[in-house]
Each structure stands twice: as C-alpha cells, then as structure tokens.
Write a structure and sequence with these properties.
By secondary structure, the protein is α/β, with parallel strands linked by helices. The protein folds into five domains: 181 residues, MutS, DNA mismatch repair protein, Chain A, domain 3 (Orthogonal Bundle); 203 residues, P-loop containing nucleotide triphosphate hydrolases (Rossmann fold, 3-Layer(aba) Sandwich), CATH 3.40.50; 70 residues; 78 residues, SH3 type barrels, CATH 2.30.30; 81 residues, Ribosomal Protein S8, Chain: A, domain 1 (2-Layer Sandwich). The protein has 23 helices and 25 strands. The strands form seven sheets. A six-stranded mixed beta sheet has the order 12-13-14-9-15-16, with helices on both faces. A five-stranded antiparallel beta sheet has the order 20-19-18-17-21. Strand 22, helix 22 and strand 23 form a beta-alpha-beta unit. Helix 4 packs across helix 12 and helix 8 runs antiparallel to helix 12. It is flat.
C-alpha cells in the first residue's frame, strides 16, 4: 500500500472485483463505467444515491433472462468518435454508419419491450427516458436502405449507383474476354513469365519477361522486385481500361454523395443517440454487477445512515475465485451503537485480514451498487471515506521503517477522519515495543472513536484485547480454531477475544519440536493464566455458536419441510379438484346432449299431448342430471374432505398439561402450578411469580413431587392454587445471550426470584453479552427495582467483563 491512508486498489483488492465485473459488461461504454468505479469520486455521494444503485441492481437481476435486451449489445464498441465526427459535419464511412446502426438496433430492441411486463419501476423509467430521447426507426430505415447486412454500401443505395455498378461489370467482362486472347497470344510467343493477367493501380496488365518487353506494344506500369518481369498494359486494352477508370471515379463520387446525404440526415440525431447510449451503458454496467453477483451468490444491500452493520452468512466475494463455493466459511456480523470499534483476534493465518477486507469491500459495494454475498436484507452503513492500513509499511523510496510508515498513516487518518469514515487497521500495535505500542494503539483508537468513525482492527496484543472488557464502544471478536484438526475454522465468534496460537500454528507449519518446547519454557505464568482464561471463553463461545448454527439448521429444515408439505398439499388439492371437475363436466355434457335432443323433439311435436309428454321427459332429464351430479359429489366427498384436512397443519403433539397441575421447570430446578394452557403456551405460578413459558420448558411432575407440593392428582378442568415449598437453588449462572428482550427479561426475573427464595448465598452471574446493549440495559433496570437485590457490578476481567453482571442478594 502507498503512503496515503485512503483507499488504493491494492489495499482491499477492489480492483480485482472490478476486473471480474468488467468481463460481464456487454458494451465498451458499460465497461468504461465499471472501470471508472475504481475511483471513489465515482461512487454514490449519499445514502439515498447508494440505495438507488442497489435498487437498480435488484431490478437488473430480474431482467437478465430477457435476452432481447442484452444480446444486441454484445461487443458493441463506443460510438463516441463517430458521433463527434458526425456533429462536426464529417461524412461517415459505411463501417461507421454500420456501427451506429448496431446501436440504433439495440435501442429499438429495448424500446420494443412490453413495459407492462416489466415489474421494476426504475427500468420502466429508463425506457421512458429512452423513448423520449429518440425514435430509432426512421434513422434505422435510412441506414437499412443504403447498407448491406455486412455493413457495406449497397449497390442499390441509389438508381444511379446501381447503373454504374452494372456498367462496370459489363466493362470488366469485356476486358476479361479480350485479356484472355492477349495472354494466349503472347504466351505462345514465349514473351510472358506466367500465362495470366494482373491488375496494377486499377488497370489490367500482363507479366512480360524483361528481355521480351520490346515484343509487346503498350504502357509499362511497373517491374517485379527481382527485375525479371515488367508489367505492361497492352495498347489494344487501353481504351477499355480508360473507360473502366472513368466509371470507377463516377462510382466513388456517387458513393460519397450518398454517404453525405445520409450523414446530413443523421446529424440531428447525434446528440440524441449519445444520450440514449448513456442510458443503455448505465444499465449494461448495472447488469454486469448483477451477473457477477450471481457468481458469488450475492444479494443487494440496504444502505444505512447509522452505524449498524448486519451481514448474514456473508463472505469475501473474491473467495469464489480462490476455492470451491462449498469450502467457503460464512459468517454473521451484527453490531452497532454503542460499539464503534471491532477488534478481531485469534490464530495466525485464521482469516482476520480476509475478514477485515470483507468489511471494507462490503462498504464499497454498498456505495457502488454491487451485490454482496449473504442473505437478503443485509445492512451496511454509508461510509464517506475508507482508510486502510494493511500490510507492511516499509518504504525504501520514502525512507520509512515499518513503524514510521504506520505512524505516517495514523497522522493522515487523524487529519481527515470524519464521523462517517471506516478505518481498517491490520496488525494494530505491530513493529514496535509491545507496551508502548499498546498505549499508542489505545490512544489512537480512543481519539478516532471520539470523532465518531467506525474502526475494525486486527491485533494479537493482550492489552488491546482487554480494552473491550471495560469499554462498551469496543467489541471483541475472534476467529475460531478447530481443536480436532488444530487449524483455524475461519468462523467468527463475537464477544470473545481469541488466542493467537502462535506456537500451535508454527507446529502445524513444520517448526521443529525442540524449538517449540524451548519456546514454551519461556512463557510466563501470567501469560499462561491469560491464555487459559481465553481458552475457557473460546470454549463457551464455540458451544454457543454450535447451538446457534444447529438452531439455524433446524429452522431451515423446518422451512424446507413446510415448503414441501405446502407444495405437495396444493398439488393434491389441485389434482383432486381437476378430477372432480372433469367428472362433473362429463355428466353435464351428457345431460346437455340429452336435453338438446328432448328440446328438438319438443319443437317437432305436433299435438298438445306430444308437448306434455315431451315436457315431462325433459323434466325427467333435468332431474336425472341433477341426481348424477349429486351422486358424483357424494362419491368424491370423502377424498375432498381428506385432502382438505391434510392441508391444515396438525397441532404439535407431545406434552399435555391441565390447569391446576403441578409441573417441573428444569431450568429453574423448581416446581410450578399450571394456571392456563393456550396451545403451546403455558401460564404458570412459581412461588410468588407468574410467567408464561412453552410446553417444551416444562416436564410432568411425578407423584412424589405432586404430593410434596401439597397437591392431589388434577381433574380435568380443575383450577387451584398451591403454596410451594422453598425451591432448590438454581445454577449460579444464567445465560441470556441469543434471546429476545421480552423473553430474556421474563426468564431473568423468574431466575432471580427462585435464586433468592432458595436462600442463595454469594454471587450469581447474569451473562447477557455486549451486542447492542439492550439486554444489558434491561438487566440493570430490573435489578434496580427488585427489593431483594443488594448489589450488582460488571463481571470484571475474569467474569465476562461488560458482557456479564454479578449480583448479590439481601439476606432472606
């Protein structure tokens, strides 16, 4: 990276993504618009403008299958030079006119699109603007009249031109016939090098031997490079050659006049064509982004004005060109206020720098209309400028050491950073004394945070890792490590600082064992204690992440099964209704045929008696048809009922609870009494506290527990209140991470109530994580209003830091 801290192509590999996008553009102007995005000055200047670019890309994704839009654009070069020449009064050559015709044909193809079939409002507006600028049909007719399909000037471009072409063909036929006789004559005389004729400067000549030129009367038009042959126009052919030259001059003059007329006809369209090309090129570039997004499974982004970052199953898009898609590690990233700094820690070669670049690319893609890998609805803040310090900062040319290079860039960042900037720092606090470097790094982070910028940095420094424990604005995140394979898993864990695992990485990379053993002997006991603490945090975080991923897997599986079930049920219902409809149609058709026959008979009736008889027969026919329809419906009714019943989701079977029943609440190690049951929700009384839980949170109490609670076996519909004995003490720790706010507060209040009534002594720990701070703030508010809470404080360095709260009860 160069000395400037602002974005450079090498810093985030942005130019690589643009290179791949360029390959997806169909036209040269579209390609130029993609390449122009290398410069930040060409990015969207506001969140609204950025969101508009994302909306255009979303519409383009839905238009990619409309080949009539994109096929005519393939390999279309820019018409700018031709349009400029046309505007200045130049006469365009056939090839130039043919190029403009291709653009007009493409524009006409776009305007022929049925706009009612276009769902995107932005593209419909583009088509309207295109139609307002130009109607390409008239200039297309003009060009089609004078040009062939190959882009040449047609012989029939004018009657005069057609006549001249005809006369030239006749002259050439006469010349060819006469030249055949002349060649035969001089060939037999041995005067020719070859028995053929040739054309020099538009005139027909014969190849005469140098020493035989006196034998041929005519005009010399040149000699061969070997000086062995002289090319002579025989005198008897000269009149025809002269007439041919005259006609060719007439042809050139008439061709120029035709091209001049057509150029003058097209000249008023030059500005309009230029404007239309701008519109088409813009959407060509947008479609290129959309095509590229399909390659790396990208989705369009929401661009926010705040500091919230939400990415779901996301990854660096460039990984799709580096490895198979199924090997790419996906990560969820979700943080916002009050967090302003994300510190990435973890093992060497664990993917921290790749993740750093991923976040930078996400910010750039948000401003340039590029999709980004992940799920729908991803949110990325709008950043006005990107400051990137990645890699070694040495510069022999500028006489900078690594440390001096970092400091130079830090100073430039401080000179220019704003509240909307993103600062990306790789290996914060490297290349100098660790203690002083940590102090300098902390001071730099606090100064930049005070200005409102967002920072993402990687570090191995324990002092910097500890900052997040006491500062809500800083969030630790670590790259996970697979203990089985002893290799990084490239999965991100939030809220937990990671171990660098330098020795394990060195061992995996082949460092000799004796060197590693010696290195381990030099580690201090303080270092080992800190590493052990991090190991426990990593283990807890890995378990939580595993549970979250399993929950997501089960959710996806449930959605898949629901989708399959819905499709199958709809198909069964549709098939059944179609079968029933067909049977009824057959009955009605037969009934109609019979009624028609009766009507004809009625019309032919001669007497009143015949009319009465036929009317009775007709009534019988109607009754019989109705009976058949009723019978068919009765026949199909069971199948219809069964199929429609299958279309209703079955109520989940499992635990059944009755009001008044004593139940066990495992997570609180306590008994409770059921008050109300509503589907899968159960309202219970646990001591003095009432709360609503799900049936999965409860277990049936056995007979002994029911008796111990002072209750008899419940009768259906029975309602009663039971005073429960002092409960057993619950676990000394409750984990609220991953829960919704209302669910977490309800569960926490129940836990504290049980813990206090059980006579708990000492401290209990509430693990709420840092995240957005909502659950942490709710926890503190609840603790303030509960009368039996004596004191509470942060978890501290060994107890979860700002991500946990330690609670002390009043004596009960």
């Amino acid at each position: 990276m160069n000395a400037s801290p602002s974005l450079s192509g090498a810093a985030l590999d942005w130019e690589k993504l643009l290179e791949y996008a360029s390959e997806e553009a169909r036209t040269e102007p579209g390609l130029e618009r993609i390449e122009a995005l290398f410069e930040p000055e060409n990015w969207a200047a506001s969140p609204a403008a950025a969101q508009l670019l994302q909306a255009e890309t979303q519409e383009a994704i839905g238009l990619l299958e409309r080949e009539h839009l994109w096929g005519p654009l393939l390999d279309l070069a820019s018409p700018a030079e031709h349009l400029e020449a046309l505007a200045k009064g130049s006469v365009l050559a056939p090839a130039q006119l043919a190029h403009l015709r291709r653009w007009l044909f493409a524009i006409d193809a776009w305007l022929s699109t049925d706009r009612e079939t276009i769902s995107g409002e932005l593209f419909r507006k583009a088509l309207s603007a295109l139609g307002f600028l130009i109607d390409p049909r008239e200039p297309l007719k003009t060009l089609d009249r004078i040009l062939t399909s190959d882009g040449e000037l047609s012989e029939n471009a004018s009657p005069k031109l057609a006549q001249i072409h005809q006369e030239i063909r006749e002259l050439k036929r006469q010349i060819t016939t006469q030249m055949e006789r002349i060649v035969q004559k001089y060939s037999q005389a041995g005067a020719l090098q070859d028995a053929i004729s040739d054309v020099h400067d538009g005139r027909y000549v014969i190849p005469v031997k140098m020493n035989e030129q006196s034998e041929v009367e005519g005009i010399i038009f040149g000699t061969s490079s070997t000086r062995q042959t002289v090319f002579i126009e025989p005198s008897e052919i000269s009149p025809l050659n002269n007439r041919l030259r005259t006609k060719q001059n007439e042809l050139a003059q008439e061709s120029w006049e035709i091209l001049d007329r057509v150029s003058r006809t097209l000249r008023p369209y030059s500005d309009r064509i230029e404007g239309a090309v701008e519109i088409v090129a813009q959407w060509d570039a947008t479609a290129a982004k959309a095509r590229l997004g399909l390659v790396y499974e990208g989705k369009t982004l929401l661009v926010g004005e705040g500091a919230q970052f939400v990415l779901r199953r996301s990854a660096n898009p460039l990984l799709w060109w580096a490895m198979p898609a199924d090997r790419i590690a996906r990560n969820d990233l979700d943080w916002g206020e009050p967090v302003r700094t994300l510190l990435l820690t973890g093992p060497n070669t664990g993917g921290k720098t790749v993740l750093l670049k991923t976040l930078g690319l996400a910010g750039i893609c948000a401003r340039t209309g590029f999709p980004f890998p992940g799920e729908e609805g991803q949110l990325v803040p709008f950043f006005d400028e990107f400051f990137v310090d990645v890699g070694d900062s040495q510069s022999i040319e500028n006489h900078l050491s690594s440390f001096s290079g970092h400091i130079a860039r830090f100073k430039q960042i401080l000179d220019r950073v704003t509240s909307q900037s993103l600062v990306l720092l790789d290996e914060l606090n490297s290349a100098t004394d660790p203690t002083e470097g940590a102090a300098l790094g902390r001071a730099f982070l606090e100064t930049v945070m005070a200005r409102g910028a967002m920072i993402v940095g990687t570090t191995h420094d324990p002092q910097l890792k500890a900052l997040a424990l006491n500062d809500d604005r800083i969030l630790n995140a670590s790259m996970a490590f697979d203990e089985k394979s002893k290799a990084p898993s490239f999965t991100l864990l939030f809220g937990v600082p990671g171990r660098s695992r330098a020795l394990e990485t060195a061992e995996r990379l082949g460092m000799p064992k004796d060197v590693l053993d010696l290195a381990r002997s030099y580690l201090t006991s303080e270092h080992n204690k800190f590493e052990n603490m991090l190991a426990r945090l990593e283990r807890d975080a890995n378990e939580l992440e595993g549970a979250r991923r399993e929950a997501n897997r089960l959710r996806d599986e449930a959605e898949r099964l629901k989708r399959e079930w819905t499709e199958r049920t709809e198909r069964n219902v549709s098939d059944l209704l179609e079968r029933t409809r067909g049977k009824l149609r057959h009955i009605l058709d037969a009934a109609q045929d019979e009624v028609r026959a009766k009507v004809r008979k009625l019309e032919e009736a001669r007497s009143r008696k015949d009319i009465d008889s036929t009317r009775g027969t007709l009534n019988d026919a109607f009754s019989e048809a109705a009976d058949r329809i009723e019978s068919a419906l009765r026949e199909e009714a069971p199948d219809i009922a069964a199929t429609l019943a299958a279309a209703k989701p079955e109520r989940a079977t499992g635990k059944e609870f009755l009001a008044g029943e004593t139940v066990r609440v495992p997570k609180f190690k306590n008994l409770a009494q059921v008050l109300e049951v509503a589907g899968s929700k159960v309202k219970i009384q646990m001591g003095a506290l009432q709360m609503t839980v799900t049936v999965d949170d409860l277990e049936k109490a056995n007979e002994a527990e029911t008796k111990a609670a002072g209750a008899k076996a419940p009768k259906p519909g029975a309602k009663r209140t039971t005073l429960l004995d002092r409960p057993d003490a619950p676990d000394e720790r409750i984990d609220l991470r991953g829960k919704r706010f209302d669910e977490a507060m309800s569960e926490l209040e129940a836990y504290l109530d049980v813990a206090y009534r059980s006579g708990a002594r000492g401290m209990v720990t509430i693990v709420h994580g840092v995240g957005t701070g909502a659950i942490r703030d709710g926890t503190r508010a609840l603790l303030k209003r509960l009368p039996y809470i004596k004191d509470y404080r942060d978890g501290g360095a060994g107890g979860g830091g700002a991500g946990a709260t330690l609670v002390e009860f009043e004596e009960s």
